[in-house]
Amino acid sequence: MPAHVPNAGLSRRDLLKQTGGLAALAAFTAACGGNTGRPSSGGGGGGSKPNLSQWYHQYGEAGTQQAAMRYAKAYPDANVSIQWTPGDYDAKLASGLLSSKGPDVFEGHFNISMVKSNQVVPLDDIMADVKDDFQPGDLATNTLDGKIYGIRMIIDPQVIYYRKSLLDKAGIKPPETVDDLISAAKELTTNKVKGIFVGNDGGNVLGGPALYSSGGEFLTKDNKPGFGGARAAQAFDKLHELYASKSVLLGAPTDWWDPTAINQGLVAMQWIGMWAVPGMQKALGDDIGVIPFPKLDAQGKPSVYSGGWTQFVSAKSANVDAAKKYVKWLWIDKQDYQEDWSLSYGFHIPPRKSLAAKASKLQSGVAADTVKLTQDYSYTDNPAWTPKMGTAFTDLLTNVIKKGADPAAEITKAEKTVNDELSRLFG
């Protein structure tokens, strides 16, 4: 169940959002059909029950669609139909949210434009009794002006997993700085194995982690660009240095969110989400270690992008109250379903503190190590960061990483777009 990859702190699901990864995901996993109508396909019985449509993107893990339909069918108070969307989910969702024919309930990633465009409704009333049981960052990323607009469904940390045996054989310690990472990737590259896989685009997914490892951020607390300055430019230039080292795998069978590259021995290290841990363990056993994205230097700090998906209620729904009641039932009351969703189809951290504390599958080995790194070094999305800002940031990364453009000049261009967006949003 890959997750969200933000504007270049990319999680698998944000990658989907910002870099078209959903199209790649559709190629990776067999297309599953979805019921697009309001009548029930996942819930039984008609009568006077309201009809609700719930939209999901197409997850890569086997069993996820069946689980979503099972949950919907079990709901007693409405007829819930599931739309399972392969391909470009974000484009489909954007279109659907403009009309009354879109979803009543949907998953996505929150940003301020959703409120400004009246696409979502606040959920404070159904969150009131459990608010303290959610991680602060997962509340903050879905909160605007003191109102909570979404309920986090899963937490998807992204990190670097590596083959312990290959590093040991080369006498290499797990990298602690970006220079260590570049050096290790070079040393681990042979005529059969590349040092690292960070996506077929050469590493845009590392943009956010690299920025935060330098001490920067997408937006400051007072909503100004936080990715300028010499240290951010240095961090982006290091990503170009990694790409130019010829130690990065390109043209892999699937993209960074799928563990095929590391599982098949094509690379010694791979940037990927914790969702892939069960598959890696099946292929590689205990030969897996994990590190965060390394700190830029002694003044920096490691970083872990904490992505995930969030459940929303559409403001265009004809049954807002019924939709909110269903969301409360599924993502607040039904803890057995929440645990199943987080842990049965790949590994994800349950957003509820109480569920995460008793998640036995996450309390040992590399999964426990990933959870600890997430607790120590994670950052989440800023709701004021819009898709247009993300596109400008991705363009910056593409030009620097692959083309060797001057980071300072590219930062200046991206800052202009971001400032224009901020002026549009805040005046």
Automatic annotation (TrEMBL):
Q: Which Pfam families match?
A: SBP_bac_1
Q: Does the keyword Signal apply?
A: yes
Q: Which InterPro entries match?
A: Bact_solute-bd_prot1, SBP, TAT_signal
Q: Which domain of life is it from?
A: Bacteria
Keyword field: Cell membrane, Lipoprotein, Membrane, Palmitate, Signal, Sugar transport, Transport
Against PROSITE patterns, the record matches this protein to:
TAT
Record-annotated membrane-spanning stretches: none
Entry protein name: Multiple sugar transport system substrate-binding protein
Organism for this UniProt entry: Kribbella jejuensis
Q: What is the lineage of its organism?
A: Bacteria, Bacillati, Actinomycetota, Actinomycetes, Propionibacteriales
